[in-house]
Amino acid sequence: MHSFTRLPDLALRSHGGSVVAASDESFADKECLIRPGRPAFQAETFGSKGQVYDGWETRRRREPGHDWALVRLGMPGVIRGVVIDTAWFKGNYPPYASVEAAEVAGHPSPAELAAATWVEIVPRSALGGDAEHHFKVDGDGRHTHVRLNMFPDGGIARLRVHGEARPDLSVYDGLGLDLAALANGGLVTACSDEFYSSPNHVLAPGLARHQAEGWETARRRGAGNDWLVIRLAGRGLIRLAEIDTTNLLHNAPGWVSLTGLDGDRETELLPKTRLQPDTPHRFRLRHTEPVGQVRVDIYPDGGLARVRLHGILA
């Protein structure tokens, strides 16, 4: 597994992504490309379009050209790597694919996107059937959309676009925001343990539907406690912390504390405080110096569904 897969999937549907257009989707819907989770498959399940696939599949092309799909990133940002997954497509996968990216302001239509300036981030590369293909992406450009090209036709189950969110925070001028949210540029940069699930899940949009959509550690058998460090969207003053243990009925931490980090300075934001299982907790904070990171300590171990740190950019 490449290290970039630890970063959030900027295109994921549950992160706000959308497949806004495709050249063709005769056999299977383009929207499947950015669904959460692994692709599913059941043999000999036929619908009006043929075998049912949990992916995007085009018709057999009889004329020159190639198929493509336009994806709006739910979280615009810097792309560090792409995964093209042909899971379950064994006799109908495309032999080659490439990926382009663009930065387009506002809310462009498919026609406006087609006229945009695109840069190639994954060159035309060979694909195999029923396999994940990982492509590291270099460069620090900010992008809002990607275009997946497959040559000439076929089926692709999933497209993952991993990177770091770089949203336009100017829309929040004069307003508060969640300084920890992935969508606003927050990111977990360090973590004591992620045995069961990724710590970045706690910063994802929406509510966790089950335990796997939060962060959960292994059972701690030694001294100490588990923790994670969140790089905020920007230095700021946090006024409200939400610590959510929803879905964690028998594995919630007993307590939590929050510490603000800014260079060599540490600021206690929330002292060690008792938590309840399966409960959203809200705590008002009253620190006076801005912080750039927050360490979340849970005692002794367990899981969190979400962490929200609402405040004002410094």
Automatic annotation (TrEMBL):
Keyword Aminoacyl-tRNA synthetase tagged: no
Molecular function terms, GO-annotated: allantoicase activity
Catalytic activity of the protein: allantoate + H2O = (S)-ureidoglycolate + urea
HAMAP family for this protein: Allantoicase
Protein name, as recorded: Probable allantoicase
EC number: 3.5.3.4
Keywords, in A-Z order: Hydrolase, Purine metabolism
Enzyme class, spelled out: hydrolase
Native organism: Nonomuraea glycinis
One GO BP: purine nucleobase metabolic process
Family under the similarity heading: Belongs to the allantoicase family.
NCBIfam families (alphabetical): allantoicase (TIGR02961)
